[in-house]
Write a structure and sequence with these properties.
Elements lengths: L1 H10 L4 H5 L28 E6 L8 E7 L2 E7 L17 H5 L9 E3 L12 E3 L2 H17 L6 E5 L7 H4 L3 H5 L4 E2 L2 H4 L1 H11 L6 E2 L6 E5 L10 H14 L1 E5 L5 H5 L2 E3 L6 H14 L5 H4 E3 L17 E3 L2 E2 L1 H9 L4 H8 L3 H14 L3 E5 L1 H4 L4 H15 L8 E2 L18 H7 L28 H8 L6 E5 L3 H4 L3 H10 L2 E6 L11 E4 L3 H4 L2 E7 L2 E7 L12 H15 L4 H9 L12 H17 L13 H8 L1 E3 L20 E2 L3 H13 L4 H7 L28 E7 L12 H5 L13 E4 L1 H7 L6 E5 L4 E8 L7 E6 L11 E3 L4 E2 L12 E2 L4 E2 L7 E6 L1
Parallel strand pairs: 6-7, 6-17, 9-10, 9-15, 10-11, 14-23, 17-18, 18-19, 24-28, 25-27
Antiparallel strand pairs: 1-2, 2-3, 4-5, 4-19, 8-16, 12-13, 20-21, 21-22, 24-33, 25-28, 26-27, 26-33, 29-30, 31-32
Bound molecules: ligand MGD (2 copies), iron/sulfur cluster and molybdenum atom.
The site of molybdenum atom has 3 residues, from loops.
């Protein structure tokens, strides 16, 4: 592990600039961040300017600096002002120049000339001008308005920039008039939010006090490779290993598992059983937090396996329902019982529970998608997150925090530009099926409020007339969504599709008009916000480098130009809103061009930081826009502990809920809408709980697609250390260093199988194999590897592109993929309480055969 990682980092010191000029592989590169002791701030002897921007290679959204030499980006490092990444990027930050200068980028707008659509069918794109492209899009939209059906416009966003998104996602559907606009959130990690949401009223991603934790539990995630805080984790990791315990719970050997004190190769999807057993041990052995949870009236521990307890015997402090939870769920969840479900030995369960108990409130249970993104994931997320409650680590030093933020400026209201047609159309039915009886999608505990991204394909297939014009940006759902084949089918039937992206991805192959986007981390304006290491921050994205091609930022520049076209055709509201309301906070001027609009939007969002009404807490004051552009970021003050303590959690009871009145209220509301019981809702939505158990963290057995007889292996999906979400496979460094993913090989795609199974099935490393599930078949190579237990196979998500460019595919012209896309075999199913797409938890069975 160490070796492969170092090889990558060494090589990443070769700047992209030198790759471009062909000086590859020289060893004399004078200086680069990874080889310098971590506290030093690297500087480059090269001539150039370090320009501040923000990486969006993952959802951490690191503040970075890009070395710009003669208008070209050559290197990347963390913004030295960052309190979150400490001036360092993860390996993927270094890939920014390669992604931006990908020779396969779309260089000009294009239109389709082949009316036939389908996987492998050449769209026969021809270049056109921006003027023609936007005129065509505007005309197609106007046809809908003229026909009185504006709601047949659908917009979907994949990734987005955090403030500018509201000028497209937040504005276009509202001012135009359509209910059909969807974010990618529920193919991301939404189910995770149900854990903290339904227990402590915080439906968000957590922050962890890594600087002080004594026990880090990476549960269903690998924060050294992926998840949300890679540079921060790398920074603190060695110290945590030295002073405390690191526990990794993952069915395959991940990077963090390889470096942890304890690795629990859990039977996929049984995390709820393990969490139940850990809770059982913490309670029976008296290791819960007295300060947070409370204690028995007479001080004697009555948590005895198998025995119920009178609720009056315990007085709770910051929590609600611990005794109900014990009586209905935990009392029988002994380690011996859990060992059978999880395949983790009793001894290890006990050891791990005691290590957590010993660290107490300085334990951080870092729960990731591996726990939550499965068909019954809401309850697993609750069960795992509830351990933070039992240990009292919620909002505590060394524990688990809610996220922080800095105040941003709001965009002016669009309300007065919403006409009656738009108002009516905005109330139309949504294609994603949220709020159906079997799809409660109750993000924030409100039934029908969560997006069900992946179900849109099913909606399109069921009702092909529902959408006539589909616009999407920064997305590739034909690749990134499980049951990917459904998207191929659905997209082939959409009459007019506009894709706003920098690369010709799989989804782009179905486009009628392609609008080439800027690469946002260095070519466009926006303000990005996030938090980590106890600080909320805002960070700039600026047009730092010269654009090599005829590209535009889709959320601002393209919207401005499209609005102009719509106005010329008789629909003025969108352009009037953009052109009459966006006043430059510095100069008082209104925008007159797309570029001015883009920059003014960034200024409006961030003016609260560089010309605040009152002095801000946190970083030293920033003096004006120029100073903000130079510094690039502003961090707020360190997190305040115990935010929700003292009855301030945003739940129904204002307490941390082991018995979730919050969930109960939502479920009752949903059941009432369908005049039925919550038990019936549980049944139709595919959960096994009945009665009160449905309102608490508990174990639900695995819902598996495919019988063990027909599909003997349980499939494990996970992210590559080098995936910049779905956008790096066309980069040569991605392919060359693919072996940094444990068990993987460079320039290839392997499914990993335990050698015992290899012997049983007569398979060996290097065999070409097919993987078949109920959803489809893909091909790749086999690798025998001890990092998975018998009966399971693991394959990294990322390869299998058939249309992303010449590096990502085996043959771009013939649409032949390099390896196989996991999403073609993962079945489309959902954690229906959140609407999230399942991809983890062993829900897909597969069989593997020699090709
Ligand atoms: N390197 C990298 N980092 C990223 C991204 C990226 O593309 N690449 N994307 C970013 C985005 S968009 C997101 S949403 C985040 C979240 O993303 P991550 O936290 O990285 O999520 P996944 O890789 O989906 O996590 C799945 C993990 O759970 C494990 N797992 C699978 N099944 C089970 C199970 O049944 N039980 C347990 N305990 N574990 C299981 C897998 O082996 C894997 O380690 O990551 C962000 N960070
Ligand atoms: N099997 C499996 N599937 C997964 C995951 C997994 O771990 N396993 N991870 C899931 C997660 S967490 C997520 S968030 C989704 C992500 O999936 P999506 O939301 O579909 O997004 P990506 O695939 O990252 O986006 C790819 C598209 O972005 C475009 N693009 C790249 N850079 C830019 C830019 O700067 N601006 C614009 N406008 N476009 C750009 C590319 O041209 C391409 O079309 O995938 C999910 N799918
Ligand atoms: S990929 Fe994520 S963690 Fe890595 S530098 Fe970019 S934003 Fe930061
Ligand atoms: Mo995501």
């Amino acid at each position: 592990m160490k070796l492969t990682r170092r090889i990558f980092i060494m090589a990443s010191g070769i700047s992209a600039g030198s790759l471009i000029t062909g000086r590859v592989g020289m060893a004399a590169q004078p200086i680069h961040s990874a080889l310098i002791p971590r506290k030093a701030k690297p500087s480059s002897p090269a001539v150039g300017t370090w320009v501040a921007s923000t990486c969006q290679g993952c959802t951490q959204w690191c503040a970075v600096q890009i070395l710009v030499q003669n208008g070209r980006a050559t290197r990347v490092r963390g913004n030295p002002l960052s309190k979150t990444n400490h001036g360092y990027v993860c390996p993927r930050g270094h890939m920014i120049p390669q992604q931006m200068y990908d020779p396969d980028r779309i260089k000009t707008p294009m239109k389709r000339t082949n009316p036939l659509k389908g996987r492998g069918i050449d769209p026969k794109f021809v270049p056109i001008s921006w003027d023609e492209a936007l005129d065509t899009v505007a005309e197609k939209m106007m046809e809908l308005r003229r026909a009185g059906e504006p709601g047949k416009l659908m917009y979907m966003r994949g990734r987005y920039s955090s403030t500018s998104t509201s000028l497209l996602y937040g504005t276009l559907p509202k001012v135009w008039g359509t209910a059909n606009y969807f974010s990618h959130s529920s193919i991301c990690a939404e189910a995770e939010k149900m854990g903290p949401g339904l227990t402590q009223g915080f439906f968000g991603y957590r922050d962890y006090d890594l600087g002080n934790t004594n026990c880090l539990v990476a549960w269903g995630c690998d924060p050294l490779s992926s998840n949300r805080m890679v540079p921060n984790t790398m920074n603190h990791f060695a110290d945590i290993v030295k002073r405390g315990t690191v526990i990794a719970i993952d069915p395959r050997m991940s990077t963090i598992a390889a470096k942890a004190h304890e690795w629990l190769p859990i039977n996929p999807g049984t995390d709820g059983a393990l969490a139940g057993a850990v809770a059982h041990v913490l309670l029976t052995e008296g290791m819960w937090s007295r300060e947070f949870v409370g204690d028995f009236v007479n001080g004697k521990n009555l948590f005895v396996a198998g025995q119920t307890i009178d609720e009056a015997a315990f007085v709770e402090k910051e929590t609600n329902g611990v005794i109900k939870w014990w009586n209905l769920e935990l009392k029988d969840r002994t380690p011996a019982w859990a060992a059978k479900e999880t395949l983790i030995p009793v001894e290890q369960i006990l050891r791990v529970a005691r290590a957590m108990g010993k660290a107490g409130s300085k334990t951080a249970v870092w729960m990731g998608p591996g726990v939550a993104m499965n068909p019954r994931g809401t309850y697993t997320a609750m069960a795992v997150h509830a351990l933070n409650g039992l240990l009292g680590s919620i909002d505590a030093e060394g524990g688990v925090w809610q996220s922080s933020s800095v105040p941003l400026g709001k965009f002016p209201s669009a309300d007065k530009y919403v006409d009656d047609v738009a108002k009516a159309a905005g109330k139309g039915k949504k294609l994603d099926g949220r709020g159906a009886k079997d799809m409660p999608a109750m993000m924030n505990a409100k039934p029908g409020s969560g997006v069900v991204t992946n179900n849109v394909a099913n909606g399109l297939l069921k009702d092909p007339g529902a959408v006539k014009v589909f616009i999407s940006s920064w997305s590739n759902f034909n690749f990134s969504c499980t049951g990917a084949g459904r998207w191929d089918e659905a997209m082939a039937k959409v009459p007019f599709f506009v894709h706003m992206v920098p690369n010709v991805s799989e989804m782009t192959q179905f486009a009628d008009i392609v609008l080439p986007s800027t690469f946002n981390s260095a070519e466009g304006w926006s303000i990005i916000t996030n938090a980590g290491n106890g600080h909320g921050y805002a960070s700039i994205q600026q047009a730092a480098v010269k654009r090599l091609w005829d590209v535009k930022q889709e959320e601002t520049e393209v919207m401005w130009l499209l609005a102009e076209k719509l106005k010329a055709k008789g629909f003025a509201n969108l352009f009037d809103y953009y052109s009459k309301e966006f006043i430059d906070p510095e100069t008082g001027k209104l925008p007159t061009t797309a570029m001015e609009f883009s920059e003014i939007a960034a200024k409006i969002s961030s003016a609260t930081l560089w010309m605040p009404k009152e002095p801000l807490k946190g970083d030293p004051a920033i003096n004006g826009w120029a100073d903000f552009k130079a510094k690039g970021m502003f961090s707020g003050p360190k997190y305040t502990l115990k935010k929700g303590w003292g009855g301030k959690f945003a739940t129904e009871t204002k307490k941390f809920e082991f018995y979730s009145e919050t969930l109960k209220k939502g479920l009752l509301e949903h059941a009432k809408k369908y005049e039925t019981t919550t038990d019936d809702i549980m049944t139709v939505s595919g959960y096994t709980a009945r009665g009160d158990v449905a309102f608490m963290p508990h174990y639900e057995p695995v819902k598996r697609h495919g019988s063990v007889a027909d599909y003997p292996f349980t499939f494990i999906d996970y992210k590559s250390r080098l995936n910049r979400e779905g956008r790096s496979a066309n980069i040569t460094w991605y392919q060359e260093f693919k072996k940094v993913d444990p068990g993987d090989v460079s320039w290839g795609d392997v499914v990993k199988m335990n050698p015992l199974d290899g012997a049983k099935f007569g398979l060996k490393s290097g065999d070409n194999v097919t993987i078949t599930s109920m959803a489809g078949t893909i091909s790749c190579q086999l690798k025998l590897w001890e990092g998975v237990r018998p009966g399971t196979v693991a394959k990294c998500f990322g390869q299998g592109h058939w249309a992303y460019g010449r590096v990502a595919t085996k043959d771009f012209a013939k649409a032949i993929p390099l390896g196989g896309n996991n999403n073609e075999i993962l079945v489309d199913d959902y954690d229906r309480l959140s609407g999230a797409t399942a991809r983890n938890g062993g829900f897909t069975g597969v069989r593997i055969q020699k090709a």
